[in-house]
Amino acid sequence: MIETTAMPDLRPNPAILVGAGGALALASVAFLSWPVAIASIVLGILMIAGADVDARTYLLPDAVTFGATVAGIVAAPLIDPFDPWFAGVSAITRAIGCAAVLASLRVSYARMRGREGLGFGDVKLAAAIGAWLSLDAIPLCFALATSAALLSALITLLRGETVERATSLPLGAFLCPSLWLVFYAGALVS
Predict the structure, then answer these.
(1) Burial of residue 80, with CB atoms counted within 10 A of its CB: 0-12 exposed, 13-18 middle, 19 or more buried
(2) Is the pLDDT of residue 50 over 90?
(3) Sign of the dihedral through C-alpha 170, 96, 128, 135
């Protein structure tokens, strides 16, 4: 008899997607110009889906990570019509660079600790972060996500639950909303 493990459900919860996506769409349309609002809605819905799935399964679907990366590369020249060629090339370069940095961190951690610390989905999500955010906003996104993850661990400890060095946290569940928030905030001030 062959044992098979069931693949976790990588579909986002429709109620969360519609509810949070609707609120995000209203905020985007109310305060952003049309091309940026549409980009914000696309990114936001992908990030809601990614955060929901990662929080439940500790997996980031390729449809979310690759979809967000491609959408960011396509949106870059549309958002910056004054120099669309440079915007597109910059988005591609940042996506590759950001993914490469996280891949290096992933490999280094695994070699030092003898176990995986970052999933490959987080590396693919880093490409999306690079595609959507300016170079100076990328560290802010990671700082916001890791701060939220640390706060989550602290709350878990305060509730009396055990948090150990090997306790897993779904980093993508924190990176996804951070990406959208940093993009949205940057669009508001520009």
Answers:
(1) middle
(2) yes
(3) positive
